[in-house]
Amino acid sequence: MTTKRFQGQWPKIGIRPTIDGRMGGVRESLETQTMNMAKSVVSLLTSTLKYPDGSSVECVIADSTIGRVAESAACAEKFRKEGVGVTITVTPCWCYGSETMDMEQHTVKAVWGFNGTERPGAVYLAAVLAGHAQKGLPAFGIYGRDVQDAGTTEIPADVKEKLLRFAKAGLAVATMRGKSYLSIGAVCMGIAGSIVNTDFFEDYLGMRCEGVDEVEIIRRMTEGIYDKDEYQKALAWAKANCKEGEDNINRADLKKDQAGRDKDWEFIVKMTLIVRDLMIGNPKLKEMGFGEEALGHNAIAAGFQGQRQWTDFYANGDFTEAILNSSFDWTGIRSPYILATENDALNGTAMLFGYLLTNTAQIFADVRTYWSPEAVERVTGKKLEGLASAGMIHLINSGAATLDGSGCQNDKDGKPTMKPFWNITEAEAKACLDATTWMPANREYFRGGGFSSKFLTRGGMPCTMVRLNLVKGLGPVLQIAEGWTVDLDPAVHKILDERTDKGWPTTWFVPRLTDDSNFKDVYSVMNNWGANHGSISCGHIGADLITLASMLRIPVCMHNVSSDDIYRPSSWNAFGMDKESADYRACQTYGPLYKK
């Protein structure tokens, strides 16, 4: 099967070296320094950042320095041909602002003005950012804290941080554009997040919405529209690597015998192949005579309705969701897919944001229960300790919790983490599989049967919980909570976990508390969370999410990121002295990135 999932190429970053246009001595004296700045940025980005397939990010430099409008136009034409979606303008000197600025409406823009005394790079930076603001084309400003010598090619640490944060978020924006969100089924049990809002996807993300009825899965099973050889390989892999748990969940009259459970395994493995093929296509199907089905839907993210029309009759989608969201399967270690449980497209979008910023798998979970220290002691007879001493949030849901979320991958210090697939070892993939038990589905919930993954996330992993919500009259808003997974006393975990559900994966989460009223205690975080679901990404990526949200003109209504780390377009400073209220006003004024 092809490893190229989407139509087109990965977006490139265009570097625009701008220069003082005055010839006869001034421009000539600056050519080398200006182009060296551009080359330094290329070196940083290409050596640090990778696309989701593991290849290095590609940059394109304008054919010449840009001193006048004709050179700006030539650069824009080159960038269009090269597939540039993100631009960074660099200069050590004064330039003609309105002539040299990036005027493309949908590219995400930054400008680095060199902090040096010999030439007024900072003056150009201020002037061109004012031009961007005046013309309604928000741009991110990059200005180093310390003065540098004119000949240096080194990029200061603070400038590197902003370049990388901008580039990661900008590439996420450009990567989403033109791709699809695929709904398999429709609205799940009245969950509003699965009422897919096409205007949001089109106007804010530049994506299209595709939809197929769940019956398409049955049609493909019935008519044999899947790779039979791959199916046998996948089924053998599942039998060898996915250990089945004893059914201690269902009452006797609802338990399936081994033959029934084996039949469920055959069904859900076949279903997994078909859902993947629906998302990205499969050239093997064309060889089999199914050219239309081979195309797929160019889906960078998808959602599966499941409950209830499907799960009242067929085996549930938990295996499909969990395996596709993981970084490994019968094909080996590979990049994860984004597949939202219950077709919650808003949580699927949050998962997509985290994935594109980190290239790692994302955990989908119910933000299920706040456990106070007092409640834990009452129920278990024991006190909470360590990070969990002030209480914790139980993240648990049947379905799309990636197996990477078990925390059985390790960073260089041996601590739990979730890695880009190219850094995951075979031993780590096996450890994630070994940490997972596949429990027979609770047939009071899932009448058709199936299996649900069961694991416990290792404590000590830094992570970020994020949720996108739609509010009528306001539009989309983002919530962010950085924190850590925590380990509990095994006896405490067992009592609390089994009180909730014996057959689903659990992550115990403690947010970082601050003076903000939303984060004054763990209860406040749970109480102010805007929906029943959350997406959990490994690492503290709140600052990157804030930058990404500002590019898309999505305000952030709740976060615990330090104000020193917040990085938004420079024109946001014109909307008031309070960063968060200014964010709302700026997003409202500029409107969606792809508004018509």
Automatic annotation (TrEMBL):
Q: Where in the cell is it found?
A: Cytoplasm
Q: Which residues bind Mn(2+)?
A: E342, D366, H533
Q: Which cofactor does it need?
A: Mn(2+)
Q: Where is the L-fucose isomerase C-terminal domain?
A: 395-559
Q: Which EC number(s) are documented for this chain?
A: 5.3.1.25
Residue ranges occupied by any L-fucose isomerase N-terminal-1 domain in the UniProt entry: 11-178
Q: Name one Pfam family in it.
A: Fucose_iso_C
Residues forming the catalytic site: E342, D366
Checking InterPro entries in the record gives: Fuc/Ara_isomerase_C, Fuc_iso_dom3_sf, Fuc_isomerase_C, Fucose_iso_dom1_sf, Fucose_iso_N1, Fucose_isomerase, Fucose_isomerase_dom2_sf, Fucose_isomerase_N/cen_sf
Q: In which pathway does it act?
A: Carbohydrate degradation; L-fucose degradation; L-lactaldehyde and glycerone phosphate from L-fucose: step 1/3
- Entry's Gene3D superfamilies? 3.40.50.1070, L-fucose Isomerase, Chain A, domain 2, L-fucose/L-arabinose isomerase, C-terminal
Keywords annotated in UniProt = Carbohydrate metabolism, Cytoplasm, Fucose metabolism, Isomerase, Manganese, Metal-binding
Q: Name one GO molecular function term.
A: L-fucose isomerase activity
Q: Where is the L-fucose isomerase N-terminal-2 domain?
A: 179-359
Give the catalysed reaction(s), semicolon-separated. L-fucose = L-fuculose
Give the similarity note. Belongs to the L-fucose isomerase family.
| HAMAP family associated with the record | Fucose_iso (MF_01254)
- What job does this protein perform? Converts the aldose L-fucose into the corresponding ketose L-fuculose.
Q: What is this protein called?
A: L-fucose isomerase
